[in-house]
Amino acid sequence: MNLPPQFWFKWQRFKTALRGAFGSREQSYETSHRMCPHCRGLIERNASVCPLCGGSVKAPASRAGTGTPGRVLGGLIPVPSTATSALVAANIALYGISWYLTQAAAQSGAGVGSGGIDGVVLVRLGAKYGPLVFAGEWWRLVTAMFLHAGLLHIGMNLWCLFDLGPTVESLFSTTKFIVIYLITGILGFVLSLFWSPFGLSIGASGAVLGLIGALMGASFHHGSLGKDLRSQLWRWVIYIFAFGLIGGVFGMGTDNAAHLGGLLSGVALGYFVPQGEPTTRSSETLWNTLAVISVIIIAASFALMALQLNRPIG
């Protein structure tokens, strides 16, 4: 099966970002080409008429201060689209709240260690903690996705989310992206819950692995080109799991069970969920409904977290 222009374009952008991370210099397809909004074919960036379908194409808007349109940090990280931006903002906001509460706990003599976020604060803000989840606080499987233990933790996850989010969102559509992110993040913590019933776990990495898995699942529909894409993605998976194993040796407590759950569920969703925008009115209604339900679940989870914020733990 030939690779659709939209998927090919996103794949080239993804490979360019990967090469840029390791210092390789190669012409960026995102710089010299773009997709026709009418036929989705790949055309020259400055073309005013699509040579494939004859449609009129507006000139792309330039972004001042960047060498590559739509990217920052020398072309390594793409400017995220709407849903990705909202997720990034939510993670940063929760980290700011947890840092503030940690500082307040330290000033009150609660014995908070240097650097990072206090474990008690994380539990209050909705970390995945087995005994409380089994006691009925299911919403912790959602809120835990937005909590992080330190700057390195949130920095790694947001870097991956910045780079992977727009690719998955463009490939599947915004509504499908929201559903994929939530489901893979939850299923990652579900596996973690049964793997370590009394463990404390937080972070967006399960959902991030879910995004990688979704790209892997989609690649199975694209023959040899998809196989090449999977080889690139597997490197990310190996790095993340290796970091988790090293972190475990040094007592950092990385949750590879959540990583595995997110990855496997992402592969399944990426394989079975159709790529692109919904093509029929019924499918559009379905995915819009699922996305709205996902947002409601996230909002309800944080509301439930806020209601028990001052409740004694244990």
Q: At CATH's second level, what is the architecture of the largest domain? A: Up-down Bundle
Radius of gyration, in Å, reads: 21 Å
- Content of β-strand: under 5%
Distance between the termini: 56 Å
Largest sheet: 2 strands, antiparallel
Low-confidence stretches: 17-31, 60-76, 110-114
Indicate the multimeric state.
Answer: single chain
Question: What series of H and E elements makes up the topology?
Answer: HHEEEEHHEHHHHEHHHH
Helix content: 55-70%
Number of domains: 2
What is the C-level CATH assignment of the largest domain?
Mainly Alpha
Looking at the structure, the CATH topology of the largest domain is: Rhomboid-like fold
Strand order of the largest sheet: 1-2
What this model shows, in words?
The chain is mainly alpha-helical and 314 residues long. The chain has 2 domains: 1-77, no CATH class; 80-307, Rhomboid-like fold. Helices cover 61% and strands 4% of the residues. It has a two-stranded antiparallel ribbon. Helix 9 (205-219) packs parallel to helix 11 (256-272).
Topology, element by element:
Blueprint: H1 5-21, H2 29-32, E1 33-35, E2 42-44, E3 71-72, E4 77-78, H3 82-107, H4 119-124, E5 128-129, H5 130-134, H6 140-143, H7 151-172, H8 174-195, E6 200-201, H9 205-219, H10 223-249, H11 256-272, H12 281-307
Antiparallel strand pairs: 1-2, 3-4, 5-6
Helix pairs in contact: 1-7, 3-7, 7-8, 7-9, 8-9, 8-11, 8-12, 9-10, 9-11
